[in-house]
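User: Continuing from earlier, I have the next pair ready.

Assistant: Great, send them over.

User: Here they are, in order.

Assistant: Folding the first of the pair now:
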Amino acid sequence: MRSLSSIAKTIANINSVVFHPVWMVAASIAILLFGTGSFVLMPLRAKFFILTATAVGTILLPLGLVSLYSLFSNSWNIEMPDRNDRVFPLITSAILYFYTWHYLSKLGLTGVIPNFLFGALLTISLVSIINFKWKISLHMSAIGGLIAMLFTMIFFYQYYSIVFLCISLLLAGLIGTSRLILDEHTPFQLYSGFVLGFISVFTSMFYIQ
């Protein structure tokens, strides 16, 4: 019979994959487009185009390039337990985030979506720099950015998304606990990641208008 510790680690691993940072930007855009009521007048085709472009730039391309990198790097560990394993994925993702933000901005898209994407770009760029010296939590920076986006939409843009905010706060606790169970981060690394993600996105969405 499996021990409670083993079961807890299995659940924590599942949580870490399901709520991995790679999904968070596209998930946040999906919530903005379909869950807040702020884009109710936007044509459905336009919404799916924006979501698809975001998913390609922040999920498919990063995962594809990192998968190719793993084929040619015998020393690279896909679980990235060491901060050195995160250098290539972080820098690659930062570059792709920039092109995603730039592409959608050049199409004439303005307002909360490009502002949020810039916040995500700022977050991953800062995490990439910090990662050279310290293993800050990318999981918590991602959920921190999502919460900042929802917080801004509710209290400054006056769009109803309180349910998503409450769920995201619960997920932040779940993700942080999972990372502690897996011994991937210290509490300070988790808190620092959350604060970094929150401030980066909040600043981008509230001040860059």
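And the other member of the pair:
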Amino acid sequence: MACKIFDLSFVDKCRLVGPFIQLSFDNIALPFFSQKCGVNRANHLEGRSLAKTPRPRIAYLCDLDPRLSWTYSGGNKRICDTLQDHVGDVSILSNSWGHAEPLRRLMHKLPDAINLRARWRLHLAMAPIIARHVNAQLRANHYDVLFCAYSLQSLAGVMPPKHTATIFTSDATQTSYRTAETGAAFGSYFRPSRLLDPWVLRQEQRILQNTDLCLWPSDWQQENAQRCYGLATDKSVVLPWGANVPTPQIRPTPDFNNGIRLLFVGRDWWAKGGPLVLDVLRNLRDRGMAARLSVIGTTPPDTDLSDMIDVYPNLDKSVPDQLNIFQNLFHAAHFLVQPSLESYGFAFCEASGFGLPSLCLKIGGIPVWEGINGHAFSPDSSAEVFANQIAYYRDNANAYQTLRATSRTCYEAKLNWPAWAKSVDREIDKLLRLWTHNQNMTVAARAIAERKTLGHR
């Protein structure tokens, strides 16, 4: 029997081949002047201390265009938009490779499996050429901050002017991911590439040691970065990322008497733990519970449970009607069941926004805190462990209502982008103040030295 599939992919087929269409946008830095991202400076500064530094000028750097909503699961655009909306005046630097641009365009014509693995390695190898193009853009404008998201290799060979601070954020680096349980679980696509690992580590160490501040979305990334690169604690800060949906409205809790509704979100059925989710569904059904599963982002294989599964393989949250479907599925669900192997996971932030508890495995940097916005079970947990937890909450309405309330509170406190922006703004202000102080001290020291020299004449 087949799952019930709601295919909406006809809306925007071009997104499937987006990486191979337009990833180089002119050869200049682009001011971020979209209507959506425009911010009135007076409003931005309202309520701030008069001692607060002016709105910083930010150069945004990434290997993929942040104006495209699908890059890095939507995180790239969210980070860029949030910086412009709440933190500073953003200019998007060109991701062209300069004189090596033909090589980059050739890379994007290769199959995904090869492109994703070779692109960043080739970037590191070609850094002396590529960095010239970035450095020229930085010299052409006076930026306070160079903010690089996701693609650490984009900073290779880059030498910002002395007045420009460098900040990096990502949910993983190549080495930290490969050596952690998340990456190790998938093995190696091309084993000879392991010979390059020591060289890659040295390049990443050099880049991060020259970076002024690293922002990680969870403790897991920070700990891995310190393990792999020995980063100083004052250069490494944990600031959770937010949900990639508008702030959800609060709706009444779905009634368990109408059946148990489970939700699964992700493009990779296997990496996100799809087979275990099916086992959880089967376990609940075997107990006589009327359980159903909704799947967003992928199509599971045919199974004897297909009649109990609703599938939405292509939901584009930038299309209002499809966003509405996405939101309704979250509102109707009792649990997000996602035993995935990943470094973070925006779906967990989104679930918390809807007051939807998450059930997952305690692996990677997943933003689920035990008993607050869900439960993170040990990596070897069986479907029965998940089913037992679901059955407990079905039979304990007050406990379930409390979990939904604390899930929403968790979202409001830290799993939203304005909260991230407020923390980033504070860190940038602190960093720029320190730089100004150090520069003033240097100027003062020079003046004292000059006076002493004159005094000896």
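Worth noting for the second one:
Residues 254 and 332 are 6 Å apart (CA to CA). The chain has a mean pLDDT of 85.
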